Amino acid sequence: MPDDRRTLSQHAVVLEQIETLADLAREAILPWFRSPELGAANKTAEGFDPVTQADRAAEQALRAYLQEARPLDGILGEEFGPKASQSGLTWVIDPIDGTRGFLAGTPCWGVLIALADVDGPFLGVIDQPYISERFLGGLGQAWVDGPQGRKALATRTTPNLGDAILFTTFPEIGTTAEQAAFKRVEQNVRLTRYGMDCYAYALLAAGHVDLVIEAGLNPYDIAAPIAVIEAAGGIVTDWHGARVGENGQVIAAANAELHAQALALLRG
């Protein structure tokens, strides 16, 4: 199989298609946001992992479009079963990243859409429908489009961990050992904030924060952020400095210096 990210000749078409997908997700989700008719089912027997009508409606809309426009591509989505790829390309979809926040009426949830080949995601969108803000990265593009117009994405150049802003979604990150590792980094940064889900990765790509460290993620949680952050000049690996994989650990850094400093502390 050839390297699709080099031989994909119709970049303009793919860029248009990923934006169409983001538009379709907005149309499917927004009628449910802060609606009194919104309900949630729990997908796990332990804790609370919600799914709503909006999650399912959005993923169904995206799958229907891809079946028509790109029938040979694979699909990996959060809410429905995977579709095998016949083209070497797979669309990785999280229809609502941050469903707990969506249920609570906060505006920090988002839609994640990525296009990946055997080497991983190379095009991604982090979309926030409610505030009409879209972050796109890959295939020579790196921009955010929102209420302030379109701007280029570029990660920060903060050289020292002591000056860094760190995000993670949950204070109780991962296992006990993972919590201890995260604490070592947290104790050495200027500021730590919690929450935001995928929006924290968008803020890193846009140059507002320096680090996002998380554990327990699935491929659809991180594929789009990887593409967007790398296009903006940042680095995303697991806690061992390797490609993000099945262990669910992620460290996203604005630059190589911060990545190395934080990684050393995570390793203990």
From TrEMBL:
PROSITE patterns: IMP_2. The keyword Isomerase does not apply. The keyword Disulfide bond does not apply. InterPro entries: His_9_proposed (IPR011809), Inositol_monoP_superfamily (IPR051090), Inositol_monophosphatase-like (IPR000760), Inositol_monophosphatase_CS (IPR020550). Pfam families: Inositol_P. PANTHER family: 3'(2'),5'-BISPHOSPHATE NUCLEOTIDASE, PHOSPHATASE. Its cofactor is Mg(2+). This is Histidinol-phosphatase. SUPFAM superfamilies: Carbohydrate phosphatase. It is an enzyme of class 3 (hydrolase). Gene3D superfamilies: 3.40.190.80, Fructose-1,6-Bisphosphatase, subunit A, domain 1. Keywords: Hydrolase, Magnesium, Metal-binding. Coiled coil: none annotated. One of its GO terms (molecular function) is metal ion binding. Its EC number is 3.1.3.15. Mg(2+) binds at E78, D94, I96, D97, D221. CDD domains: Bacterial_IMPase_like_1 (cd01641). Belongs to the inositol monophosphatase superfamily.
